[in-house]
């Protein structure tokens, strides 16, 4: 019981870090992209 629980938590940590890499990085890149687009639009309107 204890061993399976520990293995499950370890696999969950691995999945969690993979999830962070696959979700948070694109989200940050997307936010940078949005900010860049907004800046270009502001420059264009000026």
User: Please, how many helices?
Assistant: 1
Distance between the termini: 66 Å
Low-confidence stretches: none
Number of strands: 0
The computed structural class is mainly alpha
Beta-strand content bin? under 5%
SSE blueprint:
Blueprint (H helix, E strand, L loop, with lengths): L1 H44 L1
Describe the fold and architecture.
With 46 residues, this protein is an all-alpha fold. The protein has one domain (1-46). Helix content is 96%, strand content 0%. It has one helix and no strands. The protein has one helix at residues 2-45. The longest helix has 44 residues, at 2-45. The mean pLDDT is 82.
Which descriptors apply to this entry?
46 residues, mainly alpha, 1 helix, 96% helix, rod-shaped
Short note summarizing the structure:
This protein is an all-alpha fold. It has 1 helix and no strands.
């Amino acid at each position: 019981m204890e061993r399976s629980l520990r293995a499950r938590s370890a696999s969950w940590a691995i999945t969690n870090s993979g999830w962070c890499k696959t979700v948070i990085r694109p989200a940050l890149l997307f936010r940078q992209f949005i900010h860049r687009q907004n800046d270009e639009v502001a420059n264009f309107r000026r």
